[in-house]
Amino acid sequence: MDKNKKILLIGGGKMGSALLGGWLKSGLSTKQFCVQEPNPAAALIALGVDVVQQAGPDFSPDIVVLAIKPQMAAQVIPDVAVTLLEACLVISLMAGTSIATLSDLAGAKHYFIRTMPNTPAALGRGISALVAEAEVPADLRDAAEWLMQAVGDTVWLSREDQINAVTAISGSGPAYVFQMAEALASSGEALGLEPAIAKRLAYQTVSGAGAMLDVAVAGPDVDARQLRRDVTSPGGTTEAALGILAGETGLGDLMRRTTSAAFQRASDLAGPEDDKN
After folding, report:
1. What is the tens place of the pLDDT at every residue in 249-276?
2. How many CB atoms lie within 10 A of CB 78?
3. Which tens digit of pLDDT belongs to each residue from 44-71?
4. 277 assigned to some structural domain
5. Contact 161, 152 (CB under 8 A)
6. I need a surface site. Which of 11, 81, 148, 266 has the fewest CB within 10 A?
7. pLDDT, tens digit, for every residue of 96-126?
8. The domain containing residue 63 runs over which residues?
9. Which domain CATH number covers 242?
C-alpha cells in the first residue's frame, strides 16, 4: 500500500481508536489522518491526529473508514460523500450494512469493501474478515488488507452474506471470552478463594490458553480439540469438569445459541431503519 494515502476515519470510538492506534504504530503518520468524531475521548486526542466535528472539502481522502454504528449510516454517510473525490475507497466496519446500502448512501462512483475486525486490534492481535465487490481494483484490495493486517490477521470472504457469521464469531467473540474469564473468577470465589487471587488465576489461565492456541493457528498439527485432550486425564478433575461443559445443554449448546443471537442481530441490522435500535 502507498503509505502516503490520506485516510478519513469516521468514528473515533473504541474500535476506531483501536485501529488508528495500530496504524500509527505500523508507521503511518498522524498527518495522513483526519478523524470525524463529535465526542472525542482524551485518548483519541492524545494520538495527535486532526479531530473534527464534521470533515470538510479541505481534506480530500484516498480512503474513508466507516467505524460508526449502523444506526448512524443514513445520517452520516451522505454528508461525508458530497466531499469525496471520485473512486474513493470506502471501508466499512458496520455490521448489517450491505455494500448495496453503502453504494446507495455514498454514491456508486466509489469502491466499497466491508470488514469486521475485533478489539484485540488495539494490541495488534486482532483478526479481520474482508469482502469486496467484484469491481474493486487489486491495488485497493491490497490497501484494505494492509490496513487490517497492521492490527492483526486477515481473511477474505467469498460471499458478503458470510460477514454476519464473522460478526457473531470473531467480531463479538472477545466479549464471550471476557465473560468466561469473569465467570471463572467468580467460580473461584465461590470455591473459597480470595477475589484478587481468583481473578488472577482465571485471567492468566485464559491468557495462557490463548497463547497455546496461537501455536495451533501457526501449524496444521495442533488444534483446540487436541489441546483439550492433552490436558484431560482419564478419571481426573478436568474430565469431571468437561462432563458438565460438554453435556447436552453445556458450552456447545450455549455457544451455538450465543452466536445465533449475534448473527440474528447482525441480520436484523440490515433491515428497515425503524428496526435499527
Report:
1. 999 999 999 999 999 998 887 665 444 4
2. 13
3. 999 999 999 998 888 999 999 999 999 9
4. no
5. no
6. 81
7. 899 999 999 998 899 999 999 998 988 889 9
8. 7-160
9. 1.10.3730.10
Region 210-238: what's the mean pLDDT?
88
For residue 19, count other CB atoms closer than 10 A to its CB.
29
The residue among 93, 128, 160 that closes a domain is 160
- One domain, residues 146 and 54: yes
Distance CA 276, CA 269 (A): 6
Instruction: Report DSSP letters for 25-82, one per residue.
Output: HTT--GGGEEEE-SS--HHHHHTT-EEESS--TTS--SEEEE-S-GGGHHHHHHHHHT
Do 203 and 182 form a contact (C-beta atoms < 8 A)? no
What is the C-alpha to C-alpha distance for residues 173 and 167, in angstroms, rounded to an integer?
8
Q: Say if residue 108 is in the same domain as residue 24.
A: yes
Q: Are residues 11 and 146 in the same domain?
A: yes
Question: Which distant-in-sequence residues (6+ apart) come within 8 Å of 200 by Cβ?
Answer: none
Domain stops at, among 128, 160, 192:
160
**How many other C-beta atoms can be found within 10 angstroms of the C-beta atom of residue 223?**
13
Q: Which amino acid is at 180?
A: M
Same domain, 68 and 192: no
pTM: 0.88
